[in-house]
Amino acid sequence: EIQLLESGGGLVQPGGSLRLSCAASRFIFSTYAMSWVRQAPGKGLEWVSTVSSSGDRTYYADSVRGRFTISRDNSKNTLYLQVSSLRAEDTAVYYCAKGGGTYYALDYWGQGTLVTVSS
Amino acid sequence: QAGLTQPPSVSKGLRQTATLTCTGNSNNVGNQGAAWLQQHQGHPPKLLSYRGNNRPSGISERFFASRSGNTASLTITGLQPEDEADYYCSAWDSSLSAVVFGGGTKLTVL
Lengths: 119, 110
Description:
heterodimer; A: mainly beta; 7-stranded mixed beta sheet; 0% helix; globular; B: mainly beta; 3-stranded antiparallel beta sheet; 4% helix; 45% strand
């Protein structure tokens, strides 16, 4: 069974930074695009960012562009999201998700890591 | 970034049929179609369908996806208590170079 395990979330003050990681296993990581999707408490899903299989193309939601950076290390089967200049509205569960051959059909999801931005 | 439009809630009786809709435009749903996801409270989403009516292995045939123009639909037949969940659609928007989600529909099985 494909596994995605996020880590790196926690409580951070406004303006602070974190690096989220997603360890992938049981599939050929380097052949699939990967995404981060977040969900604020009691709210719907919000796409954050996508990186192509090789890492050469990245895409961001307007709400995070310039503050968040997505990257991947295919030698370590790991996806990253560097989150900076955090705001209260960034508080959410951040999910790592695998692209199922397209950028928008995310076929496997991790359990998520909670990021809380508060003073 | 504008998202896709879904009705906030739908209620149907046990063993009935529910049809959920997702409206976008020619840059997203009308271009490459939509995917549908199911999310139970406290759990990550699960992919139900993509690129028309392609279902991942293990997804029941009771879930049928279709598209007409810029609107995608998910029809769930023979509703069961476990179908009660939030349903989201997603698509790639070629003009935004972004994934867009719908706001989600809460399905209640009476």
